[in-house]
Amino acid sequence: MSVPTTQKQWLIQDKDHDFDGLVYQDSPVPKVGENEVLVKLYGASLNYRDLIIPKGLYPFPSDLPVVAGSDGAGSVLVVGSKVTAWKQGDSVVTLFNQGHQFGPISVATSKSGLGGALDGTLRQYGVFNENGLVRAPANLSHVEAATLTCAALTSWNALYGLKPLKPGETVLVQGTGGVSLFALQFAKAAGARVIATTSSAAKAEKLKQLGADFVVNYVEDKNWGETAREFAPDGVDHVIEVGGEATLTQSLKAVKFEGIISVIGFLGGAEPKDSIMEVLNHICTIRGVCVGSRAQMVDMVAAIEANDIKPVIDQKVFTLETAKEAYKYMWKKAHFGKVGITIG
Ligand SMILES: NC(=O)c1ccc[n+]([C@@H]2O[C@H](COP(=O)([O-])OP(=O)(O)OC[C@H]3O[C@@H](n4cnc5c(N)ncnc54)[C@H](OP(=O)(O)O)[C@@H]3O)[C@@H](O)[C@H]2O)c1
User: Measured from the CB, is residue 218 less than 6 Å from ligand 1?
Assistant: First the structure.
């Protein structure tokens, strides 16, 4: 395949015009440096974070204007003269924080997120450092592989980054977004039990089909944290906390002594009402999670292949051209799992 000189891309122009700050434009295909790789992107997916950057609500560093999107997968087209990790034709997926290779995240590597600090994946061709890519799982399509960059790796880090999940343990996941469904799938593959919450009866059925052992409707049952103890009387070992202000009080009710609440998101607001002393009352760990490292992603890809895990992608898949519609669709919370985008 020859390399064209121009391509289509979505640029986040500024954060003052909501989704109208997203501009679809022609742009030069970037040149490949000696340690870099040019990837023909075929798939992408969206995260809540992608939506709130153009809305000006993202609390972490972003350097606008920037090409949108962190999640991308495709095929290696050109390798730089000093690249050893890749060859033409390899199927790859992007690493969220390009500098976070292994071990704990640092201040510097936390500022290397695609689609925020660095140009992202909502484009036809991207140049990445050879260490900013991971081999895509052989059992996944490009769009499926693209969903692993952010949501999947975050869930993997929550379950394995501090105190690795063990068979027989119980994991509580909140809602049916990308992070929570990956956590459900990883937990079931590990032989753990899963309690899931959702606001919808129809989604509750889908959660059961995916293997959830116990489902609670968090709108009908405001005390769902205590209800979770009907299933896990001693409490749950891991909570995948994505609701923030709206959910932490109930998560504390559900967590076991010495359990972990991984604070990942703030879908229900970012100012929790609980005192920090609750960690002592509940004898638990509350841990902030920032996606994950390349080393963790390599482990996760191996687990996905070994267990033939297929990411849950919403039935409505968009194209690069219609990506702004995908933003609006996800903002309405019309989706189940990941919102996928194909790139021609
Ligand atoms: N820290 C990190 O590294 C990191 C990485 C990835 C994502 N995040 C954050 O994690 C959160 C989830 O991301 P995502 O991509 O999975 O989001 P998402 O796909 O947009 O999740 C949306 C779903 O979350 C559920 N939800 C919304 N409000 C809720 C509440 N108050 N209580 C329980 N569930 C609620 C709903 O499920 P139902 O429709 O079933 O009710 C909704 O459909 C976001 O805040 C995101 O910014 C953080």
Answer: yes
